[in-house]
Design brief:
By secondary structure, the protein is mostly beta strands. Helix content is about 15%, strand content about 35%.
Length: about 300
Amino acid sequence: MSTTLSLDGIATLSHWGVIRARGADAASFLHGQLTSDVAQLGADKARLAGYCSAKGRLLASFVVWAPAPDELLLACSADLLAPTLKRLSMFVLRAQCKLSDASAEFVLHGLAGASAQAWLGTAALPAPWQRSEHAGGSLVRLPDADGHERYLWAAPAGSAAPALPALSLDAWREGEVASAVPRVEAATVDQFVPQMLNFELVGGVDFQKGCYPGQEIVARSQYRGTIKRRSFLFDSAVPASAGQEIFHSGDPGQPAGLVVNAAGQRVLAEVKLAALDAGSLHLGAADGPVLVRQPMPYDVDIDVTA
């Protein structure tokens, strides 16, 4: 079984970067590019959103919020920010929207546990994806990890960090994995249709919002029962890394899945649903370390006959 996750304090999220979209058409432009509804994004909400290729494969994932009526900020993996910004910029055309890398203008902190709750006091947010301004920065409540509350706090560069216990980036990343909210990294770009990452189960896809790149494929996967792969939590006795292949004991000749995110002994991996029926899953090779499946923090349909 997984070791108990200790998650309390503050971590600097150096593995995240920030894209800014500014202008009168910023919201409408991004609404036509992302999997979530950002046109109706109020000041008190944040969104999980994906950016897909024309084939419906995720090129990036974001936490999106609107600090001003004509401005949106998109936090994403730092290792894919540059290519994502370049690709999005190709489609701005005549829209009144300027996209830029704003990573140097903000410092992103992860806040977690009892010390974060004590610092926030009555400013604590009651549910995931709620947002507020607090202590000069944008505060976003993230989904819990093993019962620990988590927040993203984005403050202007140079701002004093809250006086909370130091939390290592490794510990924070373990909490990211334990939350089972996927983050697309450079190693997994263009590998997954959103449902393979349970994206619609954690609020990352709006099926009513209208068109975006890959929308037809994403919708078809949802409504025609073609979802045969999902993401699940596993324990690994050895370190794993995003993009690493997973093999099933009953079919050692081809991969049965792919690591989405990993930290410590915790692994979030996308696998064929049929591979969960019997046998064992192994990291890296058919005779590699065994992956032990762990409970998910939300329900995932594993009916392979669907």
